[in-house]
Amino acid sequence: MSDRLLEVRDLSVDFSTREGTVQAVRGLSFDLDPQETIGIVGESGSGKSTVALAILGLLPRNASVTGSVRTGRDELTRLSEKELAKVRGSTMAYIPQDPLTSLNPSYTIGWQVSEAIWAKGLDSKQGAHRRAVELLDTVGIPRAARQMDRYPHEFSGGMRQRVAIAIAMANDPRIMIADEPTTALDVTIQAQVLDALRAAREKTHASLVLITHDLGIVAGMADRVMVMYAGKPVETAPTDEIFYRSKMPYTLGLLGSLPRLDDERGTPLRPIPGSPPSLLSLPSGCPFRPRCPVSFDLCVTEEPGLDPVGPHHRAACHRGLELTGGDTTLFAASWQDHPHHVGFDPLDSERSGNEQEEPTEVPRG
Question: How far apart are CA 94 and CA 137, in angstroms?
Fold first, then answer.
């Protein structure tokens, strides 16, 4: 048996709709090791949340799943709903994007956290109540014992998200999957929720799959990063490698679009031009080609594979080995004049790496 907690191989998810088949996830593979955090990032519609729901078996009926999702001896794609229910909350736990819709408005916070414990038959109702208070205290709910009788609508968004994290911790899962846990929260509350997530990870010693569009969160939380575009992973590497030596134009565009404290006042942002393709009718070749400043003829006809561009580093780009790692100026307003524009004579990867400017340290924690 493998020591890895989670092994996903060639996972694909299609949705049948009136307009046609939506290819939401296409041939995705990754592993999750004990006590590791992997960040899955990308624009809205890239397939991030669908990956989480497919792993947990929570997709709607119009979804078709192929591939393998294995944890320990269990092949999750072959389990019945009853068997999957035993896996959820014990082996794996889910922290939803919107706790207001996932928490039951008719029951108190205390009852819902306690129910996650005693429903598994691991404790009496009295013992579950005591543990629920401990869990709420762990995730930073002030005066946790007094909050047990309050209802979800009486809590703020950040407090509700902490309750969702407490429920995920209830049975000491080995894997936690957090789907956009800080969406729609202000920066201060985001920091508090992330502190609660760190506390949950340390308390349970669980591995974490962190799904987000916020690269700052990934920098401070993840050991590895998988960047998704049009339903597929387009770059995967250790976090520092992604931030300092990225080799995929899409990732470089995401990093280059971030505002920087060291930019001069009035410096315009550099967004990625265009929009992601429709997953109903993907273009031939590389899906990112219409938005890419370094595309060439091969990109029109052949979709690149996720190929090695360095130790523990893979990128889906025909020019991945040619690009200067970490060059986030690809999408500058004057990118037509950039040396990486179509037709340039790129430096070899070794020379490019030697000439690269030393980066400043990515803030972590």
Answer: 20
Q: In what order do the strands lie in the sheet with 74-75?
A: 20-32, 6-17, 63-71, 74-75
Distance of CA 341 to the CA centre of its chain: 30
Q: What is the pLDDT of residues 130-157, one digit of tens each?
A: 999 999 999 999 999 999 999 999 999 8
The owner of tokens 């709709």 is: 17
Strand ranges, E, within the chain: 6-17, 20-32, 37-41, 63-71, 74-75, 92-95, 175-179, 207-211, 224-229, 232-238, 307-310, 313-315
Instruction: Count CA atoms closer than 13 A to 78's CA, side-chain side.
Output: 7
pLDDT digits (tens, 9 = 90+) for 294-338: 899 999 999 999 999 999 999 999 999 988 788 877 776 544 444
Cα first-last separation, the chain: 33
What whole-number distance in Å separates Cα of residue 89 and Cα of residue 171? 6
Give one word for 173, left, alpha or beta, with left for phi > 0 and alpha for psi -120 to 50.
beta
Q: Which two tokens stand for residue 314?
A: 């893979």
Residue 183 tokens read as 């969406």
DSSP-based helix, strand, coil % in the chain, nearest 5: 35, 20, 45
Task: Report the amino acid identity of residue 23.
Answer: Q
Global confidence as pTM: 0.87
- What is the pLDDT, as a whole number, of residue 50? 95
Place of tokens 């308390």: 203
Tokens read off for 6: 């989670």
pLDDT for 121: 66
C-alpha 248/C-alpha 210 separation (Å) is 21
CB 210 within 8 A of CB 37: yes
Rounded distance between C-alpha atoms, residue 96 and residue 65, angstroms: 21
Helices 157-169 and 109-118: angle between axes, nearest 10 degrees = 20
Please answer whether residues 288 and 272 qualify as being in contact, where contact means their C-beta atoms are separated by less than 8 angstroms. no
Strand bridging mode 175-179 / 207-211: parallel
Tokens encoding 13: 């998810």
Residues 6+ apart with CB under 8 A from 320: 247, 248, 304, 307, 309
